[in-house]
Write a structure and sequence with these properties.
The strands form two sheets. Strands 1-2-3 form a three-stranded antiparallel β-sheet. The protein has a two-stranded parallel ribbon with strand order 4-5. The protein has two domains: about 55 residues, no CATH class; about 80 residues, Arc Repressor Mutant, subunit A, CATH 1.10.10.10. Helices cover about 35% and strands about 10% of the residues. Its EC number is 2.1.1.63. It comes from Thermus aquaticus. Keywords: DNA damage, Methyltransferase, Transferase.
C-alpha cells in the first residue's frame, strides 16, 4: 500500500504477524498491503501528519528474521514519547549495548515512524545519521517540536 504524506510516499508491507516494512520510497515494491492492519497503519500515519500524536505501540510488527538485540532496540525506541529525544548512548546503556550497535540497528530499521528512529540523537545534540536522509530526520523532529 502506498501512503501519501507531506514528506513523500511511504510503502507499507504487512504479514499475518504484523507490519513487515514501512518506509519512504520512490517506487513501490512487493505485494500491495491490504486488510484491517494496513488500514489501521494508514489511519495512524495520516493522524501523525495531522499532528494528532497517534500511539503506534498497539500496531504489531513482524520481527521475523531479526536478531533479539535488534528487536530490543526497536521495542525500546518505540517507547520514546512524541516530541522527545534520547541519545544513542542512553538507549545503549538501558539495553546493555554499545551506542554504535543502537545506531546500526536503527539505521537498518524497516519500520519508519512505527519505530521512531528519528528521536534518537547523539548526546551532544547532533542528529546523527538517518540512512542518508538527515534532512528528513530534522524535518520530523521539528514537526514534533523536539527541536
Amino acid at each position: 500500500m502506498l501512503l501519501p504524506t507531506p514528506i513523500g510516499p511511504l510503502w507499507l508491507e504487512v504479514s499475518a504477524k504484523g507490519v513487515r516494512r514501512l518506509g519512504p520510497v520512490l517506487f513501490p515494491r512487493g505485494k500491495e498491503a491490504e486488510g484491517p492492519l494496513a488500514e489501521r497503519v494508514a489511519e495512524g500515519v495520516a493522524r501523525y501528519f495531522l499532528g494528532e500524536r497517534p500511539d503506534f505501540l498497539s500496531i504489531p510488527l513482524d520481527y521475523s528474521g531479526l536478531s533479539p538485540w535488534r528487536v530490543a532496540v526497536y521495542e525500546a525506541t518505540r517507547r520514546i514519547p512524541y516530541g522527545t529525544t534520547r541519545s544513542y548512548g542512553a538507549l545503549g546503556r538501558e539495553l546493555g549495548l554499545p551506542a554504535r550497535a543502537v545506531g546500526m540497528a536503527l539505521r537498518a530499521s524497516p519500520f519508519f515512524l512505527l519505530v521512531p528512529a528519528h528521536r534518537v540523537i547523539h548526546a551532544d545534540g547532533r542528529l546523527g545519521g538517518f540512512a542518508g536522509q538527515e534532512g528528513l530526520k530534522l524535518w520530523l523532529l521539528r514537526f514534533e517540536g523536539a527541536l
